[in-house]
Amino acid sequence: MKNTTTNTIYLDNAATTPVDPRVAACMTDCLQSDAAFGNPAASNHDFGVAADALIEQARGHVAALIGGVPEGVVWTSGATESDNLAILGTARFREMQGRHVISSLTEHSAVIGACHKLESEGFMVSLLHPDGRGVIDPQQVIDAIHDETTLVSIMHANNETGVVQDVAAIGKICRERDVLFHVDAAQSAGRLPIDVEKMNIDLLSLSGHKLYGPKGIGVLYMNRERISRVDPLMFGGGHERGLRPGTLPTHQIAGMGKAFEIAAGEMDADVLRVAGLREQLWQGLSAIPGIIRNSEGADTLCSILSVTVPDVEGESLLLALRGLAVASGSACNSANDEASYVMRALGHSDQLAQSTIRLSLGRFNTEEDVLAAVSLFAEAVHRLRSIAGTQVV
After folding, report:
1. Can you give the pLDDT at residue 337?
2. What is the three-class DSSP state of 292?
3. Number of structural domains, the chain?
């Protein structure tokens, strides 16, 4: 996919995805409808009832993709809010049962930040250290759980490396010990099969804009049989069963629902095609001397390729790749000059971490995009190494 004005190739789908035209059409219909503009909480007239019907339909589409039930879907502003609500809300509500939370060093910053907030409130937090590929061994979770543990939060697929964790095994461990299990699935939803019941997931964070839907909308899925309540983060209204007050944005919710409905029907074909493009991309980049494919040997998401280029300064490489929209680390931390904490947790030095590039493909990328990206990337690395006098043979 190219920007028609600059000819820049978009390979940053892990940061956000383009809105699918079918989703945009759904949202436009919703915005222009004479019936759906009402406040969905206004159940005393037809306009509110029509809006509420669209929201409940979307709730069903989201639940269907993850093997859940519509009653478990709580609308939020995105996965960051969902992560915070899951971790802070659960830990605070259950603190009489224990004040220990387990997560990992390579979680999204929304999870890490929420864990640090709990620490400031006197909770104990254990951050598990993955192996050099980025994998958390389920045995680490067993070893870390003790009598005070109330919550484990482990993401399904890492947003920087694409590494997939065995959340089903971890969920089984947590369920056997009556510890609640939260999973950030912002990257994996629609790209990996998810069944919250079979995987013993109690709380699941989802995002609209990571799956060709709109920004500003997300979901915290809650197992209603296991969780009666969490402490809300905001107050002022009984929306979403009192968990998340505020008038619901009907058009954004309808858009997320449509995006998840499309994903449910097209996931297998999408994954197969994108995985093929990623391997073609790596085959091209692997010809660059010295280049490293991060997390090689681990199970990784079909869409993400993380590579490190030794002897090339990271900021210079990003500037040289002006024809490619790629990322160095997480989009959420792109304004921070520090090396990626995820790559450092995997054993990279600061220099290598700063020379790491994430390329992430999506539904609208083509083989032509991949071929052009390989050429641009290889030329940029060659030029920078020539300038620095650090050519690698």
Report:
1. 60
2. strand
3. 2
Domain with 61, as residue range(s), is 21-261
Cβ atoms 372, 9 nearer than 8 A? yes
Of residues 270 and 36, the one with the higher pLDDT is 270
Q: CA-to-CA distance for 221 and 74, rounded, in angstroms?
A: 6
Residues 6+ apart with CB under 8 A from 354: 313, 314, 315, 328, 339, 340
Q: Token pair of 20, please?
A: 């699918």
Closest to 291 measured CA to CA, from 367, 356, 348, 358 = 356
Show which of 209, 228, 261 is a domain's final residue.
261
Cα-flanking dihedrals φ and ψ of residue 247, to 5°? -60, 130
What is the spatial distance between Cα 189 and Cα 360, in angstroms, rounded to a whole number?
Answer: 15
Other CB atoms within 10 Å distance of the CB of residue 228: 8
Catalytic residues: 332
3-state class (DSSP) for residue 325:
strand
Is the confidence at residue 141, as pLDDT, over 80?
Answer: yes
CB 79 within 8 A of CB 184: yes
Amino acid 285: pLDDT: 98
CATH (domain of 257): 3.40.640.10
- Stated as kind and residue range, the H or E segment containing 305 is strand 304-308
